[in-house]
Design a protein that fits this description.
By secondary structure, the protein is an all-alpha fold. The chain has helices at about 5-10, 25-35, 40-55, 65-75, 85-100, 115-125, 140-155, 155-170, 175-190. α2 (about 25-35) packs parallel to α5 (about 85-100). It is globular.
């Protein structure tokens, strides 16, 4: 994929004006899935989202960690006592995708690449709070620990995508050296050239 994909790309759809795409989160997911399902590329996007969702549902991550990762990617996802969080929200996504995709998603994490895990963990330790995310501020340490846990226990590639969004969410500056490290990781994972657009404006 040339751009962001999966659960992190879905998170990006929860921007300030997301309600123009649906009255509630599930409606937004449904509308997006129905729009992209018309061709093979779109169906691949749905498959990748379903894979991420199933990976997280089956993971050892806590609900609080899943929510911290999701919030880092989805700044304007609504808050409130009636809003689904953690695995409840992921189950809702899966419920919406199933009739569109036609089959249940499967999530199989690739074999752990220790080099990727180490590099993602090192960059996660540099995550710092410069600005406070909107709507529901979550301590940067909680997101940092969730990214590291995701990398070490689940999938380094998924953790890397969440880390990109976490840097953007907290406004963490990215030095040229760090950007080079992000680029090396992204290339090693087979990402497209636009994956790092998420943090492009943070490079010093």
């Amino acid at each position: 994929m040339e751009y962001d994909f999966g659960i992190t790309a879905l998170g990006s759809r929860f921007h300030m004006d997301w309600r123009h795409e649906g009255p509630d989160p599930a409606a937004l997911v449904r509308r997006w899935a129905e729009l992209v399902a018309v061709d093979q590329d779109g169906r691949e996007e749905i498959r990748l989202l379903g894979r991420d969702v199933r990976l997280l549902l089956d993971s050892p991550l806590t609900d609080a960690e899943i929510h911290a990762l999701w919030r880092a990617a989805a700044a304007y996802y609504p808050v409130g006592p009636d809003v689904a969080h953690g695995r409840a929200w992921l189950t809702g996504i899966e419920r919406v995708l199933r009739p569109v995709a036609g089959v249940a998603a499967t999530g199989v994490a690739p074999g752990a690449d220790k080099g990727v895990v180490y590099a993602v963990t090192r960059l996660a330790h540099a995550l710092d709070e410069v600005c406070e995310p909107p709507l529901e501020p979550i301590p940067v340490g909680a997101v940092r620990n969730a990214v590291i846990h995701c990398a070490e226990e689940l999938d380094g590639e998924l953790a890397f995508r969440f880390l990109l969004h976490a840097y953007a969410a907290y406004g963490t500056p990215v030095s040229e050296r760090m950007h080079g490290e992000f680029r090396r990781i992204s290339e090693s994972l087979g990402h497209g050239e636009f994956m790092l657009e998420t943090i492009g404006y943070l490079v010093e």
